[in-house]
Amino acid sequence: MLNRRELVKRAGMVSCAAMTGVSPRWAAADDGGKPRAMVGAYYFDGWAGRNAKADDPNEPWAKGMPTHMKRRMLEEFAGREPLWGWRDDSAEIMTRQIDLAADHGLGFWAFCWYFNSDSAKVAADPKHTGMNLFMKAPNNTRMKFCMLVANHGGYQLKNTEGWKQATAMWMPILTHPQHLRVGGKPLIIMFDPRDSDAAGIAHLQKAAQDAGLPGVALAACHPKPPAVGFTHTTRYNVGIGWGAGETEHRYEDLIQSIPSSWQGSAEMPHIPCMVCGWDKRPWESHDPKAHHSWYFTGRTPALFQRHVNDAIAWMDQHPDQATPERLAIIYAWNELGEGGYLVPTKDDPDGAYLNALKAAVMTKG
To answer: How far apart are CA 124 and CA 129, in angstroms?
Structure first.
């Protein structure tokens, strides 16, 4: 069992002066269990790069902050700060995050990836920092990874040419030895599958085969993806009350609504998605006319553990609808602005949600 000082060092904090005197209730060493399923989590890297307001003298809070930090986060939701701080863009912190995730039963990360026809802009995008650090990390053999292709806003592939351009950027990623495979094929998850393009996907499959791969598995974050090209379904998150106004609801009600989304078939297996929280108020303005959604309070490690157990039970009961690898995915590892996160934070310094994950996923072999 680690003491608090050792935990803070493992999590990558520089100072632990404020963290002494309390013994954490979670162990960081593998206890020899084996996973009941291959459970992963989405990894969003808005916690790298430079905030757009960093040089604004009227916004002193932004100095030194990452791209997606908002003032409301610091003023009203400071307890969401990870133990290593708001930034995650160093090799040391990535190494520690891999150990934390793997030690608690997490099998892979699906890193959010953003397309641009200019490969130089893709390479410079700070939102790709986490995946780039993972691919180079000395301990990355402890986990697998794949891409969640955002394909929304200004990042759509749009057409055949976009698919071809993206394919060239994806090949070094898909051939990485730690890339997650489904049925032997590297997995790509598409957030919005509406850019499905027969010629573009055919090009991707041919390029993968030319690179020595058996092809690519494509999972759509949609219950009814286009008929062209997709092999699996999943979701990024599963919410209720989107755009229905900023009103408070119970986390228990949210997780009770999610199992109805777990539906697959032998022809198109499903990767069930679990949600460890949803409260995006930090990213919303106080303007009553702004686009607001329900937020959910009352989440507890026990409720989350039950939610993960339910997803594993669904795979037990519906093997013909799930993947043979028993893949499942959690929203999310670090969606701190939206309230979906597993990382240990100032409000959860003992890693209670990681403990809950480990209790659900791991069983003695």
So the answer is: 9
